[in-house]
Amino acid sequence: MKFKAASAILFLAVSAVADFPAGNQAFDRGHYEKAILEYEKTLAKGHVSSALHHNLANAYLEHGREQGGGIGTGTTSLGRAIYHYRLARRLNPRDTQNRANLLRAREIVHGQPPREPPLRVFTGWLTLNEWAGAASLCLTLSLLLLTARQVHAPWQNRWGIGAHLLLGVGAGLGAMAWAAWDYQSAEDEAITIRETPLYKRPLTPTEVPESVAPSHTDPDPISDGIELNIMDRRNGGWLKVAFEEGALRRSGWIQQATSDGPNLLVFPP
What we know:
Helix content: 40-55%
Low-confidence stretches: 1-18, 70-74
Oligomer: single chain
Strand order of the largest sheet: 4-3-2-1-5
Largest sheet: 5 strands, antiparallel
Order of helices and strands: HHHHHHHHEEEEE
CATH class of the largest domain: Mainly Alpha
Number of helices: 8
Number of strands: 5
CATH superfamily of the largest domain: Tetratricopeptide repeat domain
Shape: globular
CATH architecture of the largest domain: Alpha Horseshoe
């Protein structure tokens, strides 16, 4: 895959965590590998934020461009960049800069951004906590109004429509919260972080990939930065995946955590 030049804008965020400014300073000086190490150190300590994931994604994007895009190695850092942009979007879905950088990285991989299910796009405008909080607020207000009508006789003919309207809205928001939770907790999405062979079936433990008949392999490996939907899992780390690559829709089997090192990242619940 040819890595096109992409400019990434650093999302500066004030933080009291010592390693966070250190990562920002390294990024500003063009020391992208050091910035990655500093940001990863912060994540390892349990300090998680949208800004941190966004900055880390920017560092991976710039590091890949600086290294010539990983041409010849199958590694461009695009997969890791998109992974962290998506985690940042999950924490702060209305951050327009993060959305723009995610779109830019996807366009480098595909030439055009992959399509996302409409429901996922809609639920992505709020965080899971925001959906749940809005649903709880509407349901609580509805129950308070219904209770008030029962307790105070003069109010029995008031607020009935409003209470039932809030109840309906709360139920709808609760359904959206459930949908958002279902998407995040399924662990059925992953992204490649280096070029990965694609097979038409899982290999047996005795089979060597290089000796597998061409009829069982796909001649085109999966490029770095391809977002995968996991359809099935088998022993030995085998995953059945479906994905878009450019304008093509493809599917097949890949093996996770091969002897050559990690080849994909699974999105956490």
